[in-house]
Amino acid sequence: MRKRSDAPTRSEVTETVEKHKDDMSEKVEELDTIATDTETVRETLESLDFEGTSEGADEVESAIEQAEDVTVEIFDREDENLEEIQSGTEEYEGELQERTDSSESDLDKISDAGGRIETQEAVGKLGDAEAAVSSDIEFLNEQDETARQAREENEQLQQGHRSRVQGGRR
Predict the structure, then answer these.
(1) How buried is residue 114: exposed, middle or buried, by Cβ count under 10 Å (0-12/13-18/19+)?
(2) Cα(1)–Cα(22) distance, integer angstroms
(3) Who contacts 154 (Cβ-Cβ below 8 Å, separation ≥6)?
(4) Which residue in 41, 38, 45 sits closest to 60, CA to CA?
(5) Model confidence pLDDT, tens digit, residues 14-72
(6) Is 3 helix (H, G, I), strand (E, B) or coil?
(7) What's the Cα-to-Cα distance from 92 to each of 108, 110, 143, 154, rounded to whole Å?
């Protein structure tokens, strides 16, 4: 009777959106920590007097520069991981939009059918179906908006952390 695809439940949609939010938030926090570490290494190098021996100063400077290089490499790797999560979130936003579009099409079909039916009881039940589809559309739009906002907020934070790391490169 029904031709329904493997549509996710509302709780599955909510769980997926929340997981994406949590994963992005966790990665942004990691980027903040790494950016802070990078800044600390740079500040340390800038604060040194290098009044010991020339060889000692060279060794210290080299070791600190290596520490900076390592933190920048780690930052770049984690930044790429965040990009992948954000890309997955954006793809899911597209999927939610497709589901919304499909539901809106269903709503139009139900409404059209209601205009052609004479039996009041059937018209009433079609009204119930319209309300259910409208509720689904509202839910999907809310979840899409939640995912989009989370992704955009994380992208802004990510860009700020990138600026911190890349702005101090030698």
Answers:
(1) middle
(2) 39
(3) 24, 25, 27, 28, 82, 86
(4) 45
(5) 999 999 999 999 999 999 999 999 999 999 999 999 999 999 999 999 999 999 999 99
(6) coil
(7) 24, 27, 10, 16
Q: How far is CA 86 from CA 33, 56, 97, 156, 163, in A?
A: 19, 45, 16, 12, 18
10-47 helix and 54-116 helix, angle to the nearest 10 degrees: 160
CB 149 within 8 A of CB 165: no
Q: Please answer whether residues 144 and 65 qualify as being in contact, where contact means their C-beta atoms are separated by less than 8 angstroms.
A: no
Q: Which two tokens stand for residue 123?
A: 């018209």
* 12-33 b/e (C-beta count within 10 Å ≥ 16 → b): ebeebbeebbebbeebbebbee
Instruction: Give residue limits of the domains in the chain.
Output: 11-167
Taken in order 27, 29, 34, 35, the sign of the CA dihedral is positive
Q: Give whole-number Cα distances, 71 to 22, 68, 81, in Å.
A: 23, 5, 15
